[in-house]
Amino acid sequence: MVKLEDIAGLGLLQAPSGKPSEALTRSSSSYRSLDTFALPKERRYQQQFADIYFLRLTKIKPAVEQIAHEAWEETVLGGENAKKVERVLDVRQGELCWVAGTVFMDMPLKPSILEDVSKDRWISAPTSVDHYYSEDGRDQVMLEDDSGRIRLVGEPLKDYFLVTGCIIAVMGTENANGEFEVIDLKFADLPPQPPRWALSDKKIKSEDVSMSDPDTPSKKIAIVSGLEFSGTSTAYTTELSLLLSYLLGDSLDPATQSQEQSKISRLIIAGNSIAESASSDPHSNNPSTKTHTKKYGYDASSYNPLPSQLFDSFLSTLLPTMSITLLPGANDPANVSYPQQPIHSAMFPQSRLYGPTPTHPDEPGWLDATTNPSESEIDGWRVLGTSGQNLDDICKYMDSPDRLGLMEAMCRWRCSAPTAPDTLWSYPFQDDEPFVMKECPHLYFVGSQPEFNTKVIEGPEGQMVRLVLVPKFSETKEVVLVDTETLEVSKVRIGTRS
Amino acid sequence: MDTYLKHLSESVLAEDKVVDFRLLSQSLQVPVNTAKQMLYEFHRSQNAKRPGSVHATYLIYGVKHNSNSQNGADEEMPDAGSVTDVVPVFDLCLVTEEKLRDVLAEFEEVKTIHVYSVASRPTKDMALLADVAHEVSSNDKKVLSNIVNPNVRTRERKGPGLKASIASTPAFKQQPKAASKVKEDPKPAEETKPAIKTEKTEKTTSSAPAKKPAPAKSSGIMAAFSKAASLPKKEPKKSASPAVTETNTPALSDEDDDEEEMPQPKPRAKPDFKTLKQREEGLRRMMEGDDEEEAPASERAESPEEPEPEPMEVEEEAPDPVKEEKEVVETTSNGRRRGKRRIMRKKQIMDEQGYLVTIQEPGWESFSEDEAPPPPKVVKTTSSASSTQAKKGAAKGQGNIMSFFSKKA
Question: CA of A489, closest CA in chain B: separation in Å?
């Protein structure tokens, strides 16, 4: 409880003293952007999606099988030893065995390409279904590999999150109906975690360690998502300007500025910087004008440049004092399918000055427009971040999704976008499946979430992952701060009261 | 009276404007923290003179009561495994003077409070302050922030964005005069900062002329052009090589026609042309042989020439990449050819892992002329044999219907 009298004369609530306030230098952080999710410039879309599943299975299956082997090697049930079966089709009725494969969820409400083709629907619009699960229990879980498919039944399935595309091993027997009765179930669990500073050379490492040790209030990075600059709504513009002055270090007093604000070395914008356009509305309101204004190609009148201008001005104000990593999100001007490629610098006429130097493509720009998902190394920590589509899509498979638990599950499945390409649009990869987590991140954040949450999960080999759900700023007005020494998380809530 | 008070009373009281600390810092070129104090002093002194004449908004930063209750609720999650961390939550709250007492009561600890803006009337709509912030960002002058970042990098290549910033920074450099208007000791902070800034601008400006964006860009354009130029170059070559080797693909044989119909200044067209002629001749003769089965001996007399075109035919079909066809004519009886041709067959086999694998296998296919005359060949002879046939036809005095058409063409 703070009373008005308590704060009188505090800090800046006094006349200008004329005392010089010392200039503060913003902390710097080492940053490396990894191009794990970069697509080739010339992309082909002729190939089949099946390769993604195949690649994922071949990448994750050995790990799953090893874990399953360790767990079930000695398992004897009813005098029968559980033995490994190579392929799903090799499962024999009545034999206790275990097999690894890809989960496929057969859900009536889930969009299905086969159904679209059979009904002669060729218009591809993103699905508008808000959930895939059906209440009446018509959903079925299948396990498949390149040989075939088998339906999974049994109680253990209810204890785990399962979505299409995750790789699991199941132990049990095939029953008379040809279904596989699951007794136990295993994931790959967390992939091996690289040590801190794995990608930076030793020189930088020692230098940074000695530098950071004396600093007790250590450096931070700010993560924000869903800024949703809008051309029409002014509901949170004040909060946006408060956020800007907070990040700039203009607001608050010298003590806070030196201890907190100047320690924020980097801002990560995790998607949805530009509000969803309402451009479809004018067309639906008066269809007569639509026919009149039908033009070939670009129609300037239907485009509102204000949101991107506002966003550009936000970035260009902040960039002189803070480096920014920008992930595209669902509403941003980037491609729709995963992995989203960086927002083009042409969207930021003012801020692109801080972009990467074309002659040094290896060095990330001060404004680093990255892919979504994006992988980077910040102050030695491996950071994996997405703008939220991967998690949002998985949540549609669940009745009451525990988003943090699903984030953890993604790490344990070793796949950051398991539902791609089934329900999450994705590029048809052929040679590589980048969604497989080859290395365990230290920090994994997902943007555009309804609310903030965080926790640390641990792996069997001592891996520690900090999971952060980054809330939409437009709804919660919250910024997440992550300490780059301890990976501790705090958040700042911005509000107004009039 | 201090200049800043005069400035504030002008804009707030006379012009009825809302002034926040960043706007003040920008217009007077004073550090932001000083601007906050100026706003406070203005608010205090004005209200001392005439209570209620100036209204302020405050920015409070601190920890609220029960700010962790939200996280406490998460612990009721059904999944016992997901125990979420309780994280420190800081609140940044912009509040009007009227609500200050209420809002302060919600706080457990106030780390910082300062005047955010002043106006001549109570701020009902906080969006007004966003407009002020927008005004600040649309202005060219710099806000004298307290935190600088010496590591800031910009790309070397210049776009229009840089010009704008160059234009704006020198404008700001001339501002120290404006700052000295304020009766305050020149602050070291102020001095160091412009120093850093000028360094930056120097860096950018100096690199600007050195950089020459145009060549870099034009090199890109040139590259594009050269690419475009290389493309047509490539295309004739592509059409040329089939012409030399004389493929059997219908599409390409069409191209051959074009070449003949529209003579292009191609040096290498000459040898092609010759072989083409020869081939056509041979083919035509063959055709005629087909047509006139009970032909007179005079027609037969030409047959000794036949071996000449035949090997060419073998050659002509060889390089087809898709369906390799090679003919070995075994018998040439009665003007009708029989033989075998080499083809690539697609074959599906099961490999040792049980996968179906499609392979291409070379094979031989026997044929006879009447059964399978390769259609493109026919097209070629009929449509492209203009000159030879015209000549021949004239010599024979026998009008060929094809020569009639091709003459017109």
Answer: 6
